[in-house]
Amino acid sequence: LNIGLRYETRVKMDFETDLKHNDFPDEFGLADYKEKNRRDFPAMCGIGAEYQLTPQLTTELDFNWYFQKNADWGKFDDGSDIADQAGDCWSLGGTFGYQVNDEFLVSIGTIYTDFEWDNIAAYYQEIGAFEVLYTDNWHIGTGFAWKIKENVTFNFAVGQTIWDDKTIEYLQAENAGVPTFDVKTENKTTTVAFGFDLAF
Q1: pLDDT score, position 154
Q2: Alpha carbon of 188 to those of 12, 83, 99, 108, 135: distances in Å?
Q3: Average pLDDT for residues 80-94, to the nearest whole number?
């Protein structure tokens, strides 16, 4: 049995808007050229455990908590913190690994991510929020590790992330003097990764 704990500090991130062309009236307040906005990586704390069920079969369990409310994501026009509306976030995952032989390992795993929204409608008043979708999602992945030589291992993985479909009322339109409207979001992502481990 192996148990691991980790903590990652908040990472300060500043993003600058590079506006090429804007067809919307200024009162929409969509973006300002060279405007800088904070969008920190939140601090997180995680705990995980690995247990070897048999000489070939290993299982792992992992839980993470993301302190989004303590990150600086900027402020709304009324001075309130954007991150406060998003709330914190957590994820829970598990995996199985099977050692086929001395050279080949296969694995399959999944992770579920849940967003503890305080006020989702208020959060999505901020420009750019729809492009960075923060809704609950499920990821399923599988892969293998192939030990080509004593000191060279090739890794390959493929995964699918599926988000909850969401219809969000865009309140910022009303603030600009036009009727509110709904934005329907449908998202899924396929990820493919590979790499080499070299031991000297």
Answers
A1: 97
A2: 28, 24, 30, 19, 12
A3: 89
CA proximity to 92, closest of 62, 51, 59: 62
Per residue in 134-159, pLDDT (tens digit) is 678 999 999 999 999 989 999 999 99
Contact 90/64 with Cβ under 8 angstroms?
A: yes
Please tell me the pTM assigned to this model. 0.75
| pLDDT of 28 strictly over 70 | no
Residue spans of alpha helices (H) in 15-147: 82-86, 120-123
Of 194, 195, 105, 112, nearest to 158 by C-alpha is: 194
DSSP 33: T
Contact between residue 156 and residue 194 where contact means Cβ atoms under 8 Å apart: yes
Q: Do residues 37 and 74 touch, judged by C-beta distance below 8 A?
A: yes
Question: What does each C-alpha distance from 21 to 16, 32, 36, 153, 159 come to in angstroms?
Answer: 15, 11, 17, 48, 36
User: Whole-angstrom Cα distance, residue 113 to residue 79?
Assistant: 29
Helix (H) or strand (E) holding 175: helix 172-175
pLDDT of 68 over the 70 cut? yes
pLDDT at 34 over 60: yes
Q: How far is CA 54 from CA 38, 65, 117, 157, 172, in A?
A: 48, 30, 41, 23, 56
Distance from first CA to last CA of the chain, Å, rounded? Answer: 27
Cβ atoms 70, 57 nearer than 8 A: no
